[in-house]
Amino acid sequence: MHSLLNFITWDINPEIFKIGSFGLRYYALCFLGAFVVSYILMLKVFKQEGKSQELLDQLSIYIFLGTLIGARLGHCIFYEWDYYQNHFFEMFLPFRIVNGNFELTGFQGLASHGGAIGILTALWLFCRKTKTDFIWIADRLVLVVPIAGAFIRIGNFFNSEIIGLPSDLPWAVVFKKIDAIPRHPAQLYEAIAYLIIFVILWAVYSKNNKPKPGFLLGLFFILLFSARFFLEFFKENQEAFEEGMKYNMGQLLSIPFIAVGIYLIFRKPKPKEVTKKK
Predict the structure, then answer these.
(1) Number of domains in the chain
(2) What does the mean pLDDT of the chain come to?
């Protein structure tokens, strides 16, 4: 990476190394880093609130699968359904057969809104199995989701994907693998926004580690998806069908989460939620 005049040129190979058809990408390391850091932070929360590490280990498996499956299905259904409705099994498999040849593709295409839905679904299944209070654990889980999201967006930056609109700002980036146009580094904008949200949520939790049930979850929904809605104005549309739309798919999918967040913050907790022992 080096500066040229008033913009930055980004021409990093997204693969650290490649052996045959297998390549280790920076994105994969960022994805792994997101879960490792999240686990360490959640372990701190669980110990502080008298929960067992075994419970967290079970939760981690559910969240990992929920994130991966939800994000993958979200991308395929929300953004590329025209293709995947005729290639159904490619949604679930990290490879495909082209003209009789095996091709390792990985899961190229993950949608954060789908990931959010997948996490909530996995969390519901986990709470149903372990008899854990859904709102209590959701309020704690959202403490680490923004830092995980920041890792993922940095991975997107290494992949030169989810690029921004053209810009003449001094920090504009030319993604050489895409074109020669200086653009907003939209992935980094999101990463920074998520880090700020991470700090805010931890500050609120540190000040009061027993907030009103649903408050942290609601605050998370409002902050993160409002940031996502606003930052979409700096990004290129991901799919052709979004051209001509006043608000793109990412913005439209953010609105329900913001609405739920507002409801959670201003709702009156049920008496049993106030008196229940944590």
Answers:
(1) 1
(2) 84
